[in-house]
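Issue 218. Parser rejects a valid record. Input:
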Amino acid sequence: MKIAVSGKGGVGKTTLAATLARVFAEEGKKVLAIDADPDANLAGALGFEKPQDIVPLSEMKELIAERTGTEPGKYGSIFKMNPKVDDLPETIAKSVGPLKFMVLGGVKKGGGGCICPESVMLKNLIMHLVLSRDEVVILDMEAGLEHLGRGTASAVDKLLVVVEPGRRSLDTAETVRRLADDLKLKNIGVVGNKVRHAQDEEFIRRGLPGFDILGFLPYSEDVIEADLTGRSAYDTSPGTAAAVREIYKKLIA
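Output the parser choked on:
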């Protein structure tokens, strides 16, 4: 199963991605969690110690140079458009208990949307992960779905859009749906987060007609505490873990 998680910044998509990865792992699945958001936070949410020490793939200049045939930091020249990436999940992925994860990073320079060696490496790796790997792959995306192209989006089994009770968050969900439409990605589900009561659930349902609402995660001080202390919500918030298990059941159904 291939799952991409998107949503407006701060809504809790990384919390969902990390907890979902842990739930799949507890059910005995092989899980590869991918941080595809340039504002990388998935390592901490998975409970990895010293996440700041992890070097994103986009910053591995020597590796990118070797695989694409360029010199580090030297662009504007010809480079390989199909670099070898199939060995990277085994060679650069980190392990957290029974699951593995990787940090992709982003292209942080002017013209970052152009074709450059870093972006070619990232897109080729995403394509390999989605099309060729035989484990559960969970992608923690940015709202723009930047790393997904037409060739990979069609192979994603579910795009989960995380929202919170708020108009701007719901507007972002609509934007994500339009972007997903452009990529021919039709299988979209919504998860409401930071839900305090039934009125919050109703606000989300009413504000997103036509969306498949998969479930709701409760507002939890434990999740906030987990973020402050660098721990996993899976370990610190029983309510969040229980809610994600219900979402897991719907996904595998």
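Fixed in the parser; the record now loads. The CA atoms of residues 129 and 137 lie 7 Å apart.
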